[in-house]
Amino acid sequence: MTLTLLSGKFKALVDKILYFAPPDDEGFISGKALRPVLLKAEISMPQLKEVWSLADKDNRGSLTKDELKILLSLIAQVQLGRSPSLDAIKSNKETLVPNIQNVDEIVAMAPTAAAPVSNSPFSGTPAATATPPPAFAASSSSSNRNSTAQTG
User: Which of 7, 22, 34, 93 has the smallest set of CB atoms within 10 Å of its CB?
Assistant: First the structure.
């Protein structure tokens, strides 16, 4: 299942999370990397486990970008007091945006901010450095001025 209709707020949240926990070379985002963000969703651990198991349909312990979008939609359902449902995502015309507490602060601590996006196995081969998504850069430019100046 692919979520194609994305609201601006939902896309901005996905971009922030992918900046914090970028996919590996095979396109998977590890559950371990996502954990600090997911714990800020303020849903119970049993609920978080349930939505994770629905999104991680292959039980890999990691998600594709599309599965991340599904996970976030499931979290939003739970936050609204609904039972998490993949069918509801398929049939829903609106994109539900979950509330992730302090997401900008979490993203600001991203290990990728000054590190290569991918580690090249070849010495001397420059790797691209991650840059914050535009929504993050705009929303946190004043609070991040000092840390940006130090990393640049």
Answer: 93
SS3 state at 29? strand
Q: What is the CATH number of the domain that holds 29?
A: 1.10.238.10
For residue 129, which phi and psi values (nearest 5 degrees)?
A: -95, 150
What is the number of other CB atoms lying within 10 angstroms of the CB of residue 25? 8
Specify the number of domains making up the chain: 1
pLDDT tens by residue, 58-100: 999 999 999 999 999 999 999 999 999 998 888 876 678 999 9
Taking a C-beta distance cutoff of 8 angstroms, is the pair 14, 72 a contact? yes
Q: Classify residue 68 as exposed, middle or buried by CB count within 10 Å of its CB (0-12, 13-18, 19+).
A: buried
Range of the domain at 76: 8-151
pLDDT score recorded for residue 115: 42
